[in-house]
């Protein structure tokens, strides 16, 4: 049990150090507008990459996995494309995943 808490404390300290490094490196200066545009889209791009790799990860036999998670991702994407909001997208993904697992 102690090993887990050491890991949690280490992750908290590392996250705090990484988050503090930006303002320290800038020294109170403002980012140029073009750099702020890049920073603004960095978090959504990383989240999209994480979702994609977890959804379509390769299985043990090195083949691309397409299952109900792909359907739920498509449902959430469709809900967001129709300006449904994050709650509606999550509900759509949940319902499509449950229905696909029940059928498949």
Q: Shape from CA axes?
A: extended
**Termini separation:** 39 Å
The Rg value, from CA coordinates, equals 19 Å
Unreliable runs, pLDDT <50, ≥5 residues?
none
Average predicted local confidence, pLDDT? 87
User: Total number of β-strand segments?
Assistant: 0
Helix/strand/pairing class, anyone? mainly alpha
Report on this model:
This protein is mostly helical. It has a domain at 1-30. It has helices at 2-26, 33-55, 68-81, 86-103. The longest helix is centred in the N-terminal third of the chain and has 25 residues, at 2-26. The mean pLDDT is 87.
Structure, briefly:
The chain has a domain of 30 residues.
Descriptive labels:
77% helix; single chain; mainly alpha; 104 residues; extended
Draw up the topology in text.
Layout: H1 2-26, H2 33-55, H3 68-81, H4 86-103
Helix pairs in contact: 3-4
């Amino acid at each position: 049990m102690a090993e887990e808490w050491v890991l949690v404390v280490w992750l908290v300290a590392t996250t705090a150090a990484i988050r503090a490094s930006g303002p320290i490196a800038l020294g109170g200066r403002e980012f140029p507008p073009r750099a702020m545009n890049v920073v603004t889209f960095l978090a959504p791009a990383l989240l999209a990459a994480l979702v994609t790799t977890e959804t379509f990860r390769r299985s043990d036999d090195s083949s691309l996995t397409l299952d109900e998670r792909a359907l739920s991702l498509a449902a959430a994407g469709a809900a967001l494309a129709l300006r449904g909001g994050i709650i509606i997208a999550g509900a759509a993904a949940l319902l499509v995943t449950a229905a696909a697992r029940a059928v498949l």
